[in-house]
Design brief:
This protein is about 35% helix and about 10% strand. The protein is α/β, with parallel strands linked by helices. A 15-stranded mixed beta sheet has the order 1-2-3-4-5-6-7-8-9-10-11-12-13-14-15. Strand 9, helix 9 and strand 10 form a beta-alpha-beta unit. Helix 3 (about 70-80) runs parallel beside helix 4 (about 100-105) and helix 4 (about 100-105) runs parallel beside helix 5. The protein is globular, with a radius of gyration of 27 Å.
Length: about 450
């Protein structure tokens, strides 16, 4: 028995992981993890991979994201030889079709992680096959699939009960029919339709699908990405009713959502850790109050481009003791009151984005960087008050693809530059006080000297 255990240990010790290179011929049978990322991946041919996969039976993890030439034939070879394949990432491999994915599902592989983002040729049959044939599946990423319909996503909710991560971003055909339905909500809507019948309109096969009523919960689900889906408040209510322990929720660019969705999200309570709401235009301060008071463990909140929000929302969010990252880009109604609230209460804040918040003054930003000693990143591009003399030298360099106007407005401070900005504004504040005490007109400077003249 001990000899057998020693043999197993020596076998695993002999296994290797290969990253951004092709394994040598004598390494094929020893490769356990193969990772090929860009830019190296662009130099790999389909023939190279097929030769490796035909003689690498012990592969468990394969990452091939962005290899342009990989075809179904190569994935079929992988499925036939790698009997213990547990994780595969084909993100961006646009020549892959349903043929390869269906071959993976027919081999009874112990797959736990499948990433098929931007594999644009995939359709419902292959996704349904994944859900029905992979009982161990923990992570499934299907973002950027234009042909994905509610039909296969319903199978994911029905069969993949151990799923912890599900990403369905930028799938334009997905609607409420793809997600679990709340029985109570459906009953209420039926009554409303009886009272106020809508005018007749053409019915599609998707609309004819019955509500997805699950007899089980999705309590294992922790990460859910639905950005840019055509989901409504009713869909969010159904999801939250079944997946009550979500920690990371991304519903950015879901333009049909309102405060009603945020009220449902608030029932996640202390489980919720990350909430992304960028470009959800219809939410108001009332919705932010719902989740800010109920979800006290939030670390990341993104309400960029939510134009209806005011200082009240930031006042509520600043009371979150665990808040580390907050995005308020283009929330035009914000004033110094919001920044003062963050400066006085959001002690744990490390990254703040307030670009194009036109009404924020330099005094408010000074108090912010002065009080928040943990702040490591401040993005304030397009804030007029930061155009004053001396501030630009502390900003990071703008990206090379920015035009002259964008470079002039660029104000992003990271790491030691935040500390440099803090010291500069402290010095200017001291100079202003000294000038007032000596009854001398205050003149701004761009250097770090304390001289009044």
């Amino acid at each position: 028995m001990s000899n057998r255990l020693q043999g197993v240990e020596s076998f695993y010790e002999d296994m290797i992981s290969v990253t951004n290179r092709l394994p040598a011929a004598d390494e094929h049978r020893r490769v356990r993890h193969l990772t090929l990322h860009k830019p190296f991946a662009s130099t790999v041919s389909d023939e190279d991979l097929s030769r490796i996969f035909s003689s690498a039976p012990h592969l468990e993890t394969v990452v091939l994201s962005g290899i342009p030439d990989i075809t179904d034939r190569t994935i079929v070879l992988l499925a036939e030889n790698a009997n213990n394949l547990q994780s595969i990432d084909l993100t961006g491999c646009q020549q892959i079709s349903d043929v390869a994915v269906l071959e993976l599902t027919t081999k009874s592989l112990p797959l736990q992680c499948i990433k098929l983002n931007a594999v644009v040729g995939l359709t419902d049959p292959s996704i349904s096959a994944i859900a029905k044939s992979s009982p161990r599946l923990l992570e499934l990423e299907l973002s950027g699939l234009p042909l994905l319909s509610p039909l296969s996503v319903r199978d994911v909710w029905s069969f993949s009960r151990k799923l912890r991560t599900l990403r369905l971003a930028h799938c334009p055909l997905l609607s409420d029919k793809a997600f679990p339905s709340s029985i109570e909500a459906s009953d209420e809507n039926d009554e409303e339709e009886k009272e106020k019948p809508l005018p007749p309109r053409p019915i599609t096969w998707v609309e004819q699908l019955p509500p997805l009523i699950l007899r089980h919960t999705a309590d294992n689900l922790r990460v859910l990405d639905l950005s840019s889906c055509k989901i409504t408040d009713e869909g969010i209510e159904g999801i939250i009713a079944h997946a009550t322990k979500i920690q990371n929720l991304n519903i950015s660019r879901c333009s049909n959502l309102t405060d009603r969705s945020l009220e449902a999200i608030s029932t996640l309570g202390e489980n919720l850790d990350v909430l992304i709401l960028a470009h959800v235009m219809n939410i108001t301060d009332r919705g932010v109050v719902y989740f800010a008071r109920a979800c006290r463990n939030l670390r990341v909140v993104d309400v960029a481009f939510c134009r209806n929000l005011t200082d009240m929302s930031v006042f509520e969010l600043s009371g979150l003791s665990s808040l580390r990252r907050l995005s308020l880009i283009r929330v035009h109604k914000l004033t110094d009151i919001a920044i003062f609230s963050l400066a006085e209460h959001a002690w744990a804040l490390e990254r703040l984005y307030i670009s194009y918040c036109d009404h924020v003054s330099l005094d408010a930003i000074h108090l912010l960087v002065k009080n928040l000693t943990r702040l490591q990143h401040l993005s304030a591009t397009g804030v007029p008050s930061l155009k004053r003399k001396g501030v630009h030298r502390f900003s990071d360099l703008p990206p090379s693809d920015h035009d002259l106007d964008q470079q002039a407005a660029f104000r992003v401070f990271s790491g030691i530059n935040v500390e440099g900005l803090r010291k500069f504004l402290n010095k200017e504040d001291q100079r202003r006080r000294d000038a007032e005490a000596r009854n001398i007109p205050f003149v701004t400077r761009s250097d770090d000297k304390l001289d009044l003249y």
